[in-house]
Amino acid sequence: MMQVNIADAKMDFPRLIHLLESKSEDYITVARDGKPVVKMTLINDTSVTRRIGARKGKFAIKGDFDADNGEIEDMLSGGAL
User: Fold this and answer.
1) Residue 66 has pLDDT above 70, yes or no
2) Which helix (H) or strand (E) holds 68?
3) How many CB atoms neighbour CB 4 within 10 A?
C-alpha cells in the first residue's frame, strides 16, 4: 500500500497508474492533509462465464415440476405433515 497527497497524485498520476498496472502496488491511497480520502485500484476485467440462467433453454424438465409446492410449503411453514 502506498499513500500520496492529492497534489502529488495530480503531478504523478501516470506513474501511479503504472505502479498499479505493473502490480508493484495493490492499491494506492490518496490523502488530503494526511487523511485518506480515495483508494485507487485496478479494475478487475475478468469475464464471468458462469452466470445464473446461463443454461436457460439448454435442458428440459419433464413432468409437473411445481406439483409438490404446496406440500413443501406446509413442511417449511410448520403446517400439517
Assistant:
1) yes
2) none
3) 19
Q: State the residue for C-alpha cell 475478468.
A: 46
- On the 0-12 / 13-18 / 19+ scale of CB atoms within 10 A, 8 is middle
| pLDDT, tens digit, 9 for 90 and up, residues 11-48 | 999 999 999 999 999 999 999 999 999 999 999 776 66
pLDDT in tens, 40-59: 999 977 666 667 777 778 88
Looking up residue 37, the CATH number of its domain turns out to be 3.40.1620
How far, in Å, CA of 34 to CA of 27, rounded?
17
Domain count for the chain, please give it: 1
* DSSP E strand stretches across 1-81: 2-5, 27-32, 35-41
Q: What are phi and psi of 50, to 5 degrees?
A: -105, 110
Contact 4, 31 (CB under 8 A): yes
